[in-house]
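Session log. Operator J.P. requested a structure for one protein chain; no other inputs attached. Running the standard single-chain path with token output.
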Amino acid sequence: MDTQETKAMVDRCNKCGLCIPSLPRLPAGFDEAASPRGRVQLVKNFLEGNVSLSKRAKEIILTCLLCESCVVNCPSGVRQDHLFADFRDELVKQYGWNGRNVCSTPF
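Structure written below.
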């Protein structure tokens, strides 16, 4: 994860919420943390060392379909798909798991 580039992308999010209505499906029990802007804040807090890769953090990041709907609707040009894919790659580095298959998560 290129921390400097990722941090710059995270800082571009103005938390407007225009990404939320663009979701192709809302997960059961949807909460703010599972929205694109919530996930961006998760990545930000991970980079700042304020949150670890907990089971909940993994669930939140892995429920993203990487469909790019939020990217298309983001007025700030945040590439959430890149942020979330990079975060998943971080899961690979730390846990040796591909992080892309939510159903077989060993955590």
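Operator note: DSSP finds five helices and no strands in the chain.
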